Request: fold
Amino acid sequence: MLFAIEPSRIATTGTTTIIKTTPVNGNMKIFAIESSCDESAIAVLGGDERKFLIESIDSQIPVHRHYGGVVPELAVRGHLAALPRLIDQWQKSELFSVPDLIAVTYGPGLAGGLAMGLGAARALSIYYNRPLVGINHLRGHAFSPFIPPWESNQKICDFFPHLGLLVSGGNTLLFTIGAGGDMDVHCRTVDDAAGEALDKGAKLLGLPYPGGVRMEKLAESGDSHAFDFPCAFRGDNSKLSFSGLKTSLLYRLRKMTIEEIDHRKNDLCASYLHAVCRPLCEKVKNHIKTFRPRSVGISGGVSQNRKLRREIECVCASFSCPLLCAHPRHCGDNASMIAFAAYVDRIHGEETPRSFHPKLTL
Reply:
């Protein structure tokens, strides 16, 4: 039997929350909300049809570009304006029907953004009298590479045990998913995430926000071996680090004139990007040797980087291990991955968390 939280059946005694569960099935229609950072998103997953009926995202990049990064207060204002509009559009669409389950991101992320999403999800749960579940944002990313095979009617369990690489602006980690859907993290960054390192490096080079995308374009016509940037923890498969890489670029630029930087910007971008990709590929290779997975997945916003994806593909090919990649629209922050993670958790009987306080790790 599979279970989810029914908000109307939550009893509180002192500081302890007691959750009475309501059975649900694996073919349900799931409505999801994602609001962990600067993207307001909703999605509706049709379990029986194995597809997403609705996928809507309101991006705040134009608002935050002026500041060179996400401003939490402005992000909250954006969610406050966008979420009611997106929900209203869904309710008025021809595809609308009352969902069987409501899912919402409960962390990690910006507290204000998470609160906006959770408030909206709880209101809908009460209004429609439907169960509400909280989904870890990173778990959503972790399962997003399984969406393409799921849509083509393949069994997800056929790809377990699975090795996953999650590379985003806020998180970088390697994990395995066992036969029962259980997840274990084996390697993570001890400081900056890979995406954060790319954006910070791009900012040092004077590239506009979000700089990682612009850096990738310039790197395509540069020499990836023109500059030798450091790679930390090469002998430790449990750790990644990118803050030293950013500092190395800073010191390198201080030794160059503005003219030299402009003249060699493509080489700088290519070498810097190579220094980000190299440890990721090495860690994936070493973990494949250790765990012998039946599949490898790559997810998160940085997984769209063509150089990283090509190099991970080469690593997987050398082991004859299939590589699963999330759809481009599911690599960044989106509600579809939250709905899908809720769907997978119901299939494998994942226990619903006892509270919706922001969860900061996977």
About this structure: The first strand starts at residue 2 and ends at 13. Residues 161-293 form a domain with the Nucleotidyltransferase; domain 5 fold (CATH 3.30.420.40).
